[in-house]
From TrEMBL:
Chain's role: Catalyzes the asymmetric hydrolysis of diadenosine 5',5'''-P1,P4-tetraphosphate (Ap4A) to yield AMP and ATP. Exhibits decapping activity towards FAD-capped RNAs and dpCoA-capped RNAs in vitro.
GO terms classed as biological process: AMP biosynthetic process; ATP biosynthetic process
Cofactor(s) required, per the database record: a divalent metal cation
Alphabetized GO MF terms: bis(5'-nucleosyl)-tetraphosphatase (asymmetrical) activity; nucleotide binding
Gene responsible for this protein: Nudt2
Organism per entry: Erithacus rubecula (European robin)
Catalytic activity: a 5'-end FAD-phospho-ribonucleoside in mRNA + H2O = a 5'-end phospho-adenosine-phospho-ribonucleoside in mRNA + FMN + 2 H(+); P(1),P(4)-bis(5'-guanosyl) tetraphosphate + H2O = GMP + GTP + 2 H(+); a 5'-end CoA-ribonucleoside in mRNA + H2O = a 5'-end phospho-adenosine-phospho-ribonucleoside in mRNA + (R)-4'-phosphopantetheine + 2 H(+)
Positions of the Nudix hydrolase domain: 1-138
Protein name per the record: Bis(5'-nucleosyl)-tetraphosphatase [asymmetrical]
Pfam family, one: NUDIX
Family as reported in the entry's similarity comment: Belongs to the Nudix hydrolase family.
Keyword Nucleotide-binding: yes
Entry EC no(s): 3.6.1.17
Keywords: Hydrolase, Nucleotide-binding
Length: 145
């Protein structure tokens, strides 16, 4: 059976006026393995639905409560890739920080975080499917303005 994980791609706007250059994405650096950078995400617990998992993992890994985020309607992305020879599905939703100055509080699963503009976020996110997802999210956000 495929491993299933869910998370949120979180962004903030540095100024109120809509501009593609004002958007930054939150990436967390794992404190295990190859220390890769990823949005907050994690495995679905029994009895949880996917979106509950995404919010719980975001709270555990970045210290952000659901009330501090605005879920953006109309965006949901499923990625499929193998991890240690087993299929994995990761579902992401898109969420905006209500206050761009809210403090990020990392769990021990992560050792660092960065707010990054699209180009830098793609450099930090080494996996091609995550880079493509970030570009797709950016296009989605820019098309709504």
């Amino acid at each position: 059976m495929a491993v299933r994980a869910c998370g949120l791609i979180i962004y903030r706007r540095l100024q109120p006026a809509p501009s593609p250059n004002s958007i930054e994405y939150l990436l967390l650096q794992t404190s295990y393995g190859d220390h890769h950078w990823t949005p907050p995400k994690g495995h679905v617990d029994p009895g949880e639905d996917d979106l509950q998992t995404a919010f719980r993992e975001t709270q555990e890994e970045a210290g952000l409560q659901a009330s501090q985020l605005t879920l953006i309607q109309g965006y949901r992305k499923e990625l499929h890739y193998p991890v240690r020879g087993k299929p994995k599905t990761v579902v992401y939703w898109l969420a905006e920080m209500k206050d761009c100055n809210t403090e990020i509080k990392l769990s021990e699963e992560h050792q660092a975080f960065q707010w990054l503009k699209l180009e830098d976020a793609c450099k930090f996110a080494e996996y091609e499917d995550m880079q493509a997802t970030l570009k797709e999210v950016h296009q989605f956000l820019c098309s709504r303005e």
